[in-house]
Design brief:
Protein-Tyrosine Phosphatase, Chain A, two-stranded antiparallel sheet, alpha/beta
Length: about 280
């Protein structure tokens, strides 16, 4: 029942307030700022790091909104084949540099690989998602490192990162950023769960895409699992990050090549005093 369509009035009300941000033509946009951290009287920097679903269909009004947010860089986590499959090309966005940072190589989007991934998604279990999320961690080091180096080197240049849905690859790098900033697991898991609401306006387009996949064509309930964004799933991921990869700092150093000094700078650049705003 959780994955049935949500009440439109409820969705509209939640999307109208933080952490959600309006960029016309882009779904599931959220500001990762203003979350409390383990540092006393410090919060994550508002108006700096944004997460979203694909930006391929951004409108002219959306471009103006993105410019007003001072977003100068967009990191695209999708593969070439993925963009072609869903007819979602890289757009031209005035005043914004789009940097390709695919998590997976193109061959990871073969029909056979996609079928296996969709079967895992369709099961809807945390165990299945952890298999998928381990794959993202194993392949995502170069992409995540590019984003983290932006944080290290450009602390006053707001940026946005996205995949297709803004849920899995996007959710993992969002969790890594928040974890490095000292945000607690409960808050990180809540942020992840908001994607359930953030994707709702795009439900029909997502379902239309999924109906073209053999696994989902005659199984609506399996397709619905693609909307799953459960608090408990992110809790399981954070445990996986600790238990299998040694925690966020060990993972980042091993898979991105960043150092302890880099991480100290990144952590500092992700937070501001409670009363401070950019």
């Amino acid at each position: 029942m959780e994955l049935e369509p949500l009440d439109p009035a409820y969705v509209a009300e939640v999307l109208s307030r933080p952490p959600f941000v309006q960029i016309c033509g882009v779904q599931n946009v959220r500001d990762l700022g203003s979350y409390p951290t383990a540092t006393p009287n410090a919060i994550t920097k508002p108006g700096y790091a944004y997460r979203a679903a694909e930006v391929s269909h951004i409108t002219e009004e959306g471009v103006e909104q993105m410019n007003a947010l001072r977003i100068s860089t967009v990191f695209d986590l999708r593969s070439d084949l993925e963009m072609h499959k869903y007819n979602s090309p890289i757009p031209e966005i005035r005043g914004v540099e789009i940097i390709r940072t695919p998590v997976f190589r193109n061959e990871d989007y073969s029909p056979e690989s996609l079928a296996k991934k969709f079967q895992l998604y369709a099961s809807g279990t945390n165990e299945a998602f952890m298999t998928l999320y381990s794959q993202i961690l194993d392949h995502g080091g170069p992409a995540f490192g590019t984003i983290l180096r932006h944080v290290r080197d450009k602390p006053t240049s707001p940026f946005l990162f996205h995949c297709t849905a803004g849920k899995d690859r996007t959710g993992i790098i969002a969790a890594i950023l928040l974890k490095l900033a000292g945000v607690d697991d409960h808050t990180i898991s809540h942020d992840y769960s908001l994607t359930r609401i953030g994707r709702e306006p795009d439900r029909e387009r997502v379902m239309e895409r999924l109906r073209k996949e053999p696994l989902f064509a005659s199984n609506n309930q399996a397709a619905m699992q693609m909307f799953a964004s459960r608090f408990e799933t992110m809790q399981a991921f954070l445990s996986l990050l600790d238990n299998k990869y040694g925690g966020v700092e060990v993972y980042v150093k091993q898979y991105t090549g960043l150092t302890d000094d880099d991480l100290a700078i990144i952590r500092s650049n992700l937070v501001v005093p409670t009363k401070s705003r950019m």
